[in-house]
Amino acid sequence: MDQVIDRILVIRLSSLGDILLATPVIRALRMKYPGALIDAVVKNPYADTLRCNPHINKLFLFDKKSASGLHSELIGRDYSLIIDLQNNRRSRALVKNAGCEIRRFRKLTFKKLMLVRFKLNLFVQIKTITERYAASAGVELDGGGLDLFIDENVEAVNFGDKNYIGLCPGSRHFTKRWPAGYFIELGRNLIERGFGVVLFGGRDDREICGSISSLITGSVNLQSDDRLYQTAADMKKCRLVITNDSGLMHVAAASGVPVMTIFGSSVREFGFQPYGVKNFILENKSLSCRPCSHIGKPECPKKHFKCMKDLTPQSVLDNLEKFTFTL
User: Fold this and answer.
1) Residues 205-240: pLDDT tens digits?
2) What does DSSP say about strands 81-84 and 101-104: parallel, antiparallel, or unpaired?
3) Measured distance CA(199)–CA(267) in Å, rounded
4) What residues make up the domain containing 297?
5) At 324, is the pLDDT very low, low, confident or very high (cuts 50, 70, 90)?
6) Could you give the angle at the alpha carbon of 60 between the alpha carbons of 296 and 100, nearest 5°?
């Protein structure tokens, strides 16, 4: 007789984009096990990704100081199935000796290593991270996009009635950041063509958003100190968001906004493209040095940074016309 699955734990500790990419899997688990209790664990800084998610019964917040106590609490909840989408030392320690079935995310580390180090592409199919999460969890996706449920008390900023285009110039790693000067030139071109320009960013993007916005006359700087719900609410007012490969790319996708993403060291094989919305990826496919990393680097190993520098503001404008609308 098959085991009854009535208590499920989903673990995805970080980061912003990775957790959002897991939300269709949580939704699929709710559809497959409608009467089950479904809990989730994330790191405290990312709590808002799932705090208002109606498919989750209880959200647990992880930090290193209280990890042992959290382990005891989780084990005491007597789960019948654990979905570990983080699959690292910390996530394994959290559910050690759980005494139930644990399904863990397959990271394909060897394939990524071969592609980065030797440029040997063993990825027969390009699958999104969400699709790979679902395969690891043993669920079928419903074809919908990412979920980001916003606190009902959050209202979008009233920044005007123009057709606004959002720009997200930040990213944690240098090789994933399109040059700031290119964002400035692009923003000025968009303003000249009658569009409004809005800058989005988190706490770490304060300087870059401020400097870019100051050089694009008429732009609106909505960089915030990681106020996720406010950013998502404001993004929903945009006609399009142009972004690097970053967490905000996935926030835009979760907000249902068309996304144009500029890939530098990133490649589609790693699976982190925008999910569930109309999107376009601009990348330099002519370089033999891509990808130089599966997460990004603090500088270009070849010192030329052609993966980004060759993608000019004009090339973005040209592709925007093909992608979504006539500028």
Assistant:
1) 999 999 999 999 999 999 998 899 999 999 999 999
2) parallel
3) 25
4) 164-323
5) low
6) 95
**Nearest Cα residue to 294 out of 111, 91, 170:** 111
Helix runs in the chain, H state only = 16-32, 67-75, 89-94, 109-118, 129-137, 180-192, 206-214, 228-235, 247-254, 306-309, 313-323
The CATH number that applies at residue 174 is: 3.40.50.2000
Q: Which residues pair with 322 in a beta bridge?
A: none
Instruction: Enter the pTM of the model.
Output: 0.96
pLDDT tens track for 164-182: 999 999 999 999 999 999 9
CA distance 25 to 31: 10
Q: Which amino acid is at 313?
A: P
Coil, strand or helix at 197: strand
**CA dihedral sign, ordered 45, 279, 175, 313:** negative
Question: Half-sphere exposure (CA, 13 Å, Cβ side) for 133?
Answer: 27
Answer whether residue 160 shows pLDDT above 90: no
Measured CA to CA, the distance from residue 175 to residue 281 in angstroms comes to: 16
First to last CA, the chain: 61
Across the range 96-123, mean pLDDT stands at: 96
pLDDT > 70 in the chain, percent = 98
Q: Cα dist. 188→114, 140, 173, 314 in Å?
A: 41, 44, 25, 12
Look at residue 78 in the predicted model and tell me its pLDDT: 96
Contacts of 44 (CB under 8 A, 6+ apart): 61, 62, 63
The total of structural domains in the chain comes to 2
For residue 298, being part of any structural domain is answered with yes
Of the CA atoms within 13 Å of residue 20, those in its CB half-sphere come to 30
Distance CA 247, CA 241 (A): 13
pLDDT of residue 1: 44
- Token representation of residue 156: 């979008």
DSSP label at 173? S
Specify whether the CB–CB gap between 249 and 276 falls below 8 A. no
Average of per-residue pLDDT across 294-308: 96
Would you give the DSSP letter of residue 176? G
Verify that 248 and 171 share a domain, yes or no.
yes
